[in-house]
Write a structure and sequence with these properties.
442 residues, alpha+beta, five-stranded mixed β-sheet, five-stranded antiparallel β-sheet, 40% helix, globular
Length: 442
């Protein structure tokens, strides 16, 4: 499918999203509407843009703002890759396990109706692993946890993914390695924790409504809820990169959407019971309902850090481990190393092999000349390097809004040299498709 398929499903001439909001707005969370609207305007120059001008041939490039939303397929994919890259270098270079905590299918709807429990749901899963290391081995492990609310069919299936160090730090900074954790034994403990969490979080009326589900979940899982933690093989950095991308991945990848005909969406998924790749055909309304339920609440952190990776302890932990390393001559981490996040130029250069600030026509460099932002619903010039750039930005604003200047404005606007107008292409630059097809990306 083309990269705009998600935007077409929501916002094409059939206006599925508008119809969905009109039908279900009384039951929708405000943050869902907010995030989808951000996605709708992502890459649209009417929401703001920067202009770059080639110093050689004066070619003009317009770079629209990106929404950086949590639902946007383009922004979230780029953020996932960058987060994973930084993670690979920032954690201890020791073996980690990818640990997954799941619950009984009958309880999925309970968490859908009471989303307030999701944060504590993740905390409780981490606590089980962390307390095992602290009580059994007297060490503090490093844990990075992420919550997924989606299954392969976009159903609401809350479960916790964790990146757990196989070992931990003692109080003196010594690093101890342990490769065995009795995850099977922890299943029953996880089951007890989840059932108690639900009972203490709901009021009496709500507990009556879910009591049958709680009893069924307990009786149908004699050994406890599922805890999966396979041993990782291969290079440590490759492990960290893969697990990091998996933890932060979006609910559905665009490549899984196989077709959209205006009424139905067909997407592929992996059936874990049979181990086969299958497809499912649903109406657009059903597809939208499945996708938006996985948009997290505003300010809800889907990734959290614990133990020696917690933001409060990480710097101190690295200093202690470094001191121990000097004596033991075992190098686990370089405490002074700091990895910067790539800017958009560096990301595009890595993906395409081309420098987005080099003109493809004359190979001179583009220069930043100014930008326009949206203020109180009106496009406003935020910065212009000179009067000539300001005049160019004003023309672009008029082209986008369709507004004409009055006579006084025409007299005050400086005349732009003919050479600049003659070569102006007004082409748009997108963060993930700069000098390729020039098509918009969703």
């Amino acid at each position: 499918m083309d990269p705009n398929v998600m935007k077409r499903i929501f916002f094409d001439e059939h206006r599925h999203w508008d119809a969905f909001v009109e039908k279900h707005k009384e039951h929708m969370r405000p943050n869902v509407i907010k995030e989808v609207q951000k996605f709708r305007g992502c890459g649209d120059p009417r929401n703001g843009f920067k202009i770059l001008v080639c110093e050689g041939c004066h070619d003009i490039r317009r770079v629209p703002y990106r929404c950086k939303g949590r639902f946007c397929t383009t922004c979230s994919c780029g953020e996932t890759e960058e987060w994973s890259r930084v993670l690979m270098e920032d954690v201890f270079q020791v073996n980690h396990r990818h640990v997954v905590f799941t619950i009984d299918e009958g309880l999925w709807r309970v968490f859908l109706q009471h989303r307030k429990m999701l944060k504590e749901f993740m905390d409780e899963a981490v606590r089980i692993i962390k307390e095992h290391f602290e009580k059994k081995h007297k060490i503090t492990p490093g844990i990075i946890a992420g919550i997924h609310t989606f299954g392969s069919r976009l159903n609401f299936n809350p479960h916790v993914h964790m990146l757990v160090t196989m070992g931990g730090m003692k109080s003196n900074g010594e690093w101890k390695t342990y490769d065995y954790v009795p995850f099977e034994m922890l299943r029953k403990q996880w089951q007890t924790v989840v059932l108690k969490l639900i009972r203490r979080s709901l009021n009496e009326e709500e507990k009556k409504q879910v009591q049958s589900r709680l009893q069924q979940a307990y009786s149908a899982n004699g050994e406890g809820f599922y805890v999966h933690a396979p041993k990782q093989k291969g290079n440590v950095k490759n492990q960290l990169g893969y697990i990091g991308r998996y933890i932060k991945r979006p609910a559905i990848a665009l490549k899984r959407i196989q077709s959209y005909d205006g009424e139905y969406v067909v997407f592929s998924y992996h059936d874990k019971k049979s181990g086969e790749e299958k497809t499912e055909k649903v109406t657009v309304e059903e597809f939208i309902a499945r996708v938006i339920r996985h948009i997290p609440d505003e300010n809800f952190k889907t990734i959290r850090y614990y133990g020696v990776y917690s933001r409060r302890l990480k710097k101190v932990s690295k200093m202690l481990v470094t001191s121990w390393q000097k004596e033991a001559r075992k190098w686990i981490v370089r405490a002074q190393r700091r990895l910067k996040r790539r800017n958009w130029r560096e990301r595009i250069q890595r993906i395409t092999g081309k420098d987005p600030l080099v003109c493809p026509k004359c190979e001179c460099y583009y220069e930043y000349k100014g930008e326009v932002c949206l203020e109180e619903g009106k496009l406003t010039i935020k910065y212009a390097v000179c009067e000539r750039a300001r005049g160019c930005l004003e023309r672009m604003i008029r082209d986008l809004t369709g507004k004409q200047k009055n006579k006084k404005q025409k007299e005050e606007t400086p005349v732009v040299p003919k050479q600049l107008r003659a070569v102006e292409t007004d082409s748009e630059v997108y963060m993930f498709d700069l000098f390729g097809s020039g098509k918009h990306t969703a």
